[in-house]
Amino acid sequence: MEMLLIYLFVIALIGLIIWRKMKKKNKPIKKNGLGILAPIFFILIAFSLSLSQLMHIPGQSFHLPPYWEMMIAGLLGVIFGLIMLSQTDYEVREDGFIYSKPNKNFKYVIIAIIFIRMALSQYFKGLDSIDFAVLTMTLAFIYIAVWRIGSYAKFRKLNGDNYSVNAG
Q1: Tens digit of each residue's pLDDT (9 = 90 or more) over 34-80
Q2: In a 3-state reduction of DSSP, which class is residue 103?
Q3: What are the two backbone dihedrals, phi and then psi, of residue 64, each rounded to the nearest 5 degrees?
Q4: Which long-range contacts (CB under 8 A, 24 or more apart) does 18-21 make?
Q5: Cβ count within 10 A of residue 89
Q6: 3-state SS track over 133-157
Q7: pTM for this structure?
Q8: Which residues of 90-121 are buried (b: 16+ CB within 10 A; e: fewer)?
Q9: Residue 149's closest CA among 33, 69, 37, 31?
Q10: Alpha-carbon distance 155 to 149, whole Å?
């Protein structure tokens, strides 16, 4: 029953991501594109609250996973982030605003990454719960940070620091 709920949550999450991407495809990126970086800050807040909760579990002492496990989670995060970044691009349309360029493969890439993360989660279920949570958060934060910072860099390169082009 617990696995069914997890799968339903993942399906709902995938649907929400695809729906949001479809909804935003006809809207220009506002102002100077700082909204591209917003998910990094939201996830940083959520993960800091989660770590705070992990530090205060009664009867369990908090510890970080071994250094090599953190490095592997970071490397996987960088790989996932670069894959997502390769699927993200922007274009200037005839109205002078910058839009996300439609990508037919994006939904398949996001689904594949979510399923790979789920498979890794199942594989590493034997880890201590604190280690598992910290490694999962590390991987997710790094791949979202790499993807969003790289996307912002692509946006700024296209924008060419010309604020009048994207003054909306």
Answers
A1: 888 888 888 888 888 888 877 777 777 777 788 888 898 899 999 98
A2: coil
A3: -85, 150
A4: 18/107, 18/110, 21/100, 21/106, 21/107
A5: 14
A6: HHHHHHHHHHHHHHHHHHHHHHHHH
A7: 0.75
A8: beeeeeebbbbeeeeebeebbeebeeebeeee
A9: 37
A10: 10
